[in-house]
Specification:
It is built from eleven helices and eight strands. The protein is globular.
Amino acid sequence: MVSGKKQPVILFDLDGTLIDSTEAILDSFRQSYDELGGIYPGAEAIRAMIGHPLSEMYRSFGVPSARVEEYVATYKRHYRQVHTLKTTLLPGAEEAISEAADFARLGVVTTKTGVYSRQLLEHFGVMDYFEVLIGSEDVRRHKPHPEPVLKALELMGGDPQRSRLVGDTCLDVGAARAANVVPIGVCCGYGSEEELRRCGAELCADALSAVKKIRKEFEMPRNPRQLKALLS
């Protein structure tokens, strides 16, 4: 096990990577349209946009720019009432976080509101594993821009070359690549395997398999004889 600042850094996306908050998200969108009017875009359209900032989602669904923040505020008011009730950890996520913390330093990079993200991770008893959490309110430009990834690494003193980002959409992949961080795409969330392949991600089934892949990479013996024995 590598210690101190030399440890690798693993940054995790949240929705579709570690947690499933689909029900809470859909419920909150429905509530905003019930209160403020407009044509509800439907579950399929919303699912396809999860990972984008809320304001961008509402604009894409035809909400006038002048009213977007009103819809976002209504969404958030309802979301904070239901998010812990209607969100679950994805299978293997807790094990992934625990194993990752055994050999790496951890952070979260999400377009979700940071305060709700912390509440969820505290609710599931895993927030203490993470050194930093970068949420939507912590940056000006969101994934696929590298700003969230770079801010996390700056706060952690992390080396991009010894860092990995685990996420479920091409937004995560784009942000990682722009920050010179290797992205690992997981097929348990909102991005399809085809989309992740097209944007050039290394693929794993879920966060746990991604962590095992990263661990094997960083703990791979450097001695040629040891490497040959491991691979034989």
